């Protein structure tokens, strides 16, 4: 149903159209009151929000968080239940699962569900979604009544409520109800205590999600007045040298404030005194605030800033000028409904709609807007800059998200895709190199190659408002091993972003052992070089095109024709390290491959799949290699922890495999694309806490599902071509800036998984069941006819 947001209609929409993840009256969407207003807006379908379940991915290795966040919000206010310390309540648990700060350790497959007396440290304001590494958890807040419960508390799953922009739970010790909501830069807390109980809050600047050597370095805090506290936290870990400021206000006066510093006893805080000077920093500062007994809940607004605490104060005053939890929650819900309105689906099961819209939700959490309301932000070297006509973003997991997150945005939100591509280019101009894995103003250099080139390249070839020459210049700087050109970049960052493997690749046209991830580096360098060549072509730079197009084939020096895989080679010579008949493709040796083995990495030569087909023995050999992949022994070797979601040696739980199923469209068995997609949908995406088969990876696992569920996928980012798959829904409408693009699937059902015929804008598909990005246009259609009969499945045109 669609509702126009007049005051009366808003009340109807919000009371009728929204449901949380648990059936609890306290989670009914906000009903506006005379002092609660929502901004004027076009018609928005609020009912879609019932299909978002933030609990999906919080168990197993999904590593998502259930807390409150708005689209692209700098604040992710969420409970912390697992820090990755391997001590106390976490003893014996894998610290890897602390990535988002929240982990449900239940084994849902075995039926071993942990539901009562679960540990909780409190609620912090920054979290990563779906990563394989841990950081953040800044500015922890824990309400308590008894000092015995000021370190941590416990909760029961039955009291948890998670919905878009809202989270609530009851803390067992003290029976304190915690409610959270957010704006872009402000986290809003509401704590309801038992009648007559002491109302106390711990504000912990020392709290750290610690699995990746996380540590608090410097804390500063000041009790400004009886309603206000502000501070600064500098920490290290995966994000080295992260610096964040906060400004917090309360709806009730602080009756008594104490502070404990660096493990010492708590002492009284003096109004206006700053605790933790630059000359004498405190690594740990924990503030204990006592509001006395009372009948009113304690409401708390905490604004963050990457620049200073004056910026945090301005953010608070601009986004939450008054205490109105209901209004802020309603605005967060509206923000999500507006974002989700870009794609509308009909048909499919309730579970499939939940998978789909929760995937959209996860894909819209990051990159986050990382600047103050006045436009100030810190660049990757720590300098303060002023945004003029643009926004600064952060949390770029480019190795993951270049594959589907950014290509999806070029369709569903081309302006945002443009903004992100230009943001990456601007970061290169400001600091020297394109980001690789950047978070909260700090570059980690995690993963391999220079994957941002695939993001900006895709934007360039699709004709977005991105300057091809600027894009090319930024990409070229990252593609040459020239560390001496960037003295401004700290050594530890430069060594990670401009990895030494690149020097061997340039010198030898391969990456020999004992280089870490050697084969994977070579393959990725070659692909990214191809994306640079495509930018050069658009920019009209013939010399650069020739240079980088040539480099795009160097990784073929790792191809072993007899073994049939890309294999490790010797340093300096590119000679094969192993005899072909002794090579073990099941080995996930980290000196050879990144988070996988030869079975997965043979398909990452995405830049010229015609050439890959040729070296694999032509169409028949290519088809055989695909069949061998999906029927290989799942238990053939020791696996990296990121290797999950097996079908043979296809692993859906990690990104290098995500395009592989679609390669069957280049064979005489194109129906297998639909067959294996149907299996992945049903086995690896479920509306349950363990419903994501691997790390969600900042939207990538979700974006794959969104595109695939709509019926198509982009195999090679920076090649503006899509190939068809197996649509889940009867109809999908994509709201483009100038009109609608509609995807329909006649005779579609759970059993009718094969594509009988398909037309794009009334015309047959191109070679390999493909169509061009330019054909996704206002008034356009992609029309499928489905069947349960494999013999009726359409064959792909192979030439």
What does this structure look like?
It is a single chain. The protein is of the alpha+beta class. Strands 6-7-8-9-18-13-12-11-16 form a nine-stranded antiparallel sheet. Strands 19-33-34-38-35-36 form a six-stranded mixed sheet, with helices on one face. The protein has a five-stranded antiparallel sheet with strand order 4-10-17-14-15, with no helix packed on it. Strand 11 (215-225) and strand 12 (228-236) form a beta hairpin. The longest helix is centred in the middle third of the chain and has 22 residues, at 518-539. Residues 1-20 form the signal peptide. Keywords: Hydrolase, Signal. GO terms for molecular function: hydrolase activity. It comes from Photobacterium iliopiscarium.
Provide a short characterization of the protein structure:
The chain is 25% helix and 21% strand.
Q: Give the overall silhouette.
A: globular
Number of H- or I-type helical stretches? 18
Strand order of the largest sheet: 6-7-8-9-18-13-12-11-16
Write down the overall mean pLDDT. Answer: 94
Q: Oligomeric status of the shown chains?
A: single chain
Strand content: 15-25%
> Which spans of ≥5 residues are poorly predicted at pLDDT below 50?
1-26, 28-41
Q: Nearest-angstrom radius of gyration?
A: 26 Å
DSSP summary, beta strand count: 38
Tell me the span between the first and last alpha carbons. Answer: 45 Å
Q: How would you classify the helix and strand content by structural class?
A: alpha+beta
Percent of residues in helical segments?
A: 25-40%
Please outline the major beta sheet: 9 strands, antiparallel
